[in-house]
Amino acid sequence: MRSKLVVGNWKMHGGTVQNRDLLNAVIAGTEGMNGTSLAVCVPYPYLSQAQSILQATHVRWGAQNVSQYDKGAYTGEVSAAMLMDFGCRYVIVGHSERRALYGEDSHTVALKFRAAQSVGLTPVLCVGETLDQREAAITEQVVAEQLDAIIELVGIDALAKSVLAYEPVWAIGTGKTATPEQAQEVHAFIRGRIAANNSEVATGLQILYGGSAKANNAAELFAMPDIDGGLIGGASLVADEFIAICDAAKN
Asked: In the CATH scheme, what is the code of domain 4-250?
């Protein structure tokens, strides 16, 4: 039986005072939620603060991006080893915003996935389709290409030490959300495609839903058999909302 996982993605939000208040509220509000793991992925400048506040708690932390290189003349980049210095457990790779705004293709994402795992980080691999791609009925083709890039570079077994997140790009920041049935359909496709290579890896793999999940729809989404939690964007910045989503995962 797979446990549930809820990961907050703060994106480019935060400040030292509000971070402190938010993290302390989340710690208090999620204490004792057995069977559900949770984490927050914060902007690079706040990793030290997250580590300081969270290190003795049940909440884990991570980053939102990582370089595919381990060191060198890459101004502005942050390596996986640097993230480990701040006690990170997770790092998001392949988020739709990185793919769309910064031109990261599936091979680059696969290199970042490999870099993260090389130092012991757990990559949260994002896959998903745009509205145009969904309307063209090529969702499965798009998601398969994104998955296959990882499998081709590091092998199917590497997925056992990762988390996947299906994020329908058309449902991020638009106010739209995939129905539980729509989300389950793609989650089942992902698990099935992995099972075709290794059924054991597929069975144990946590696949999160990452398309504008909120407190009022989380329970229905998390009740689907192949949805193992959520990668939460805007709602992770509001303590009560994030706590309610975590509670929905617990239930």
From this structure: 3.20.20.70
Please list, residue by residue across 157-171, b when 16 or more beta carbons sit within 10 angstroms of its beta carbon and e when fewer do: ebbeebbbbbbbbbb
| Tens-digit pLDDT profile for residues 106-130 | 999 999 999 999 999 999 999 999 9
Minimal CA–CA distance to 177: which of 143, 146, 216, 145? 216
Q: Angle at Cα 15 formed by Cα 101 and Cα 79, nearest 5°? A: 50
Residues forming the active site: 95, 167
Q: Which of 66, 6, 18 is nearest to 46 (CA)?
A: 18
Handedness of CA 12, 18, 19, 21 (dihedral sign): negative
pTM beyond 0.85, yes or no:
yes
Domain residue spans in the chain?
Answer: 4-250
Q: Dihedrals φ, ψ of 150, to 5°?
A: -70, -50
